[in-house]
Amino acid sequence: MFSQLADYVSGAWWSYPLVLGLAYTDVLIPLVPSETAVITGGVLASSGDMHLSLLIFGAALGAVAGDNTVYLLGRYFGEPLRRRFFGSERAQKRVRWAERQVGERGGLLIIVGRFIPGGRTVVTFASGSLEMRWRRFIAFDVLAGAIWAFYAAGLGYFGGKAFERAPWKGLLLAFGIALAVTGCVEGVRWLRRRHQARSA
Predict the structure, then answer these.
(1) How many other CB atoms sit within 10 Å of the CB of residue 197?
(2) Which ranges in the chain belong to alpha helices (H)?
(3) Which letter does DSSP use for residue 166 in this model?
(4) Model pLDDT for residues 80-130, shown as the tens digit of each residue
(5) 123 by DSSP, 3-state: which?
(6) What is the mean pLDDT of residues 171-185?
(7) What is the largest CA-CA distance in the chain?
(8) How far apart are CA 16 and CA 50, in angstroms?
(9) How many angstroms separate the CA atoms of 67 and 55, rounded?
(10) What is the phi/psi pair of residue 117, to 5°?
(11) How far apart are CA 162 and CA 169, in angstroms?
(12) What is the C-alpha to C-alpha distance for residues 105 and 51, in angstroms, rounded to an integer?
């Protein structure tokens, strides 16, 4: 698995635009493995095959550009897109939840949403459809993109350093930590929803 990812995300010049493109597309199509690509890039950076700073910059730039695309789609085409892509009852619930949270917490949710699979799409779309001021949105979004890029690349980099002789182990360790963090975020969300349901 590591060798296949490393073939795509390698030390070649096109690896950086590839990571940027994956980070951009991930917001539009949540199944795109942008985080895995950034973690893999971090592992490769630990052995000197990629520049860590360029990797982080490319990942953050792609993430912010993708978030802003979805924000603009939500702002100018919110209703038709909601009917088209968020038509199921489950998707509608997620959008309604995101809209409530954006109204209450706004900026904090933009940062947290970046670490929830699919959450970044719903949160940025809701921010646009609720017409959150773009200046406020971009300030929090740049911070969210930078934290996410540092986090994913750093996991790969330090995982790769810890297992210099077997970089695939570093990738597995970093990927496991990323899954654990995502699981913790989802767990906290579930507990809060349960607590709110009991209080209601």
Answers:
(1) 8
(2) 2-8, 15-28, 34-46, 52-85, 89-104, 107-113, 119-129, 134-162, 167-199
(3) -
(4) 777 666 667 777 777 776 677 676 677 788 888 888 777 788 888 888 888
(5) helix
(6) 59
(7) 55
(8) 9
(9) 18
(10) -55, 125
(11) 9
(12) 36
Contact (CB, 8 A) for 145 and 67: yes
Q: Which amino acid is at 37?
A: A
Report domain extents, the chain. Answer: 2-199
Q: CB of 128 within 8 A of CB of 72?
A: yes
Contact in structure between 157 and 46 (CB atoms under 8 Å): yes
Write down the pLDDT at residue 189: 57
Question: Using an 8 Å Cβ cutoff, are 137 and 71 in contact?
Answer: yes
Q: How confident is the model at residue 132 (pLDDT cuts 50, 70, 90)?
A: confident
Q: How many CB atoms lie within 10 A of CB 186?
A: 14
pLDDT at 80: 76
- Burial of residue 131 (number of CB atoms within 10 Å: 0-12, 13-18, 19+): exposed
Distances (CA, A) of 163 to 43, 155, 169: 9, 12, 6
CA atoms within 13 A on the CB side of 25: 11
Q: Is residue 48 pLDDT above 60, yes or no?
A: yes
Q: Report CA 165 to chain centroid distance, whole Å.
A: 29
Picking from 155, 157, 154, the residue whose alpha carbon sits closest to that of residue 174 is 155
Candidate from 17-31, 38-52, 77-91, 185-199 with smallest mean pLDDT: 185-199
Distance CA 66, CA 77 (A): 16
Query: Rounded CA gap, 5 and 27, in Å?
Result: 20
pLDDT at 2: 43
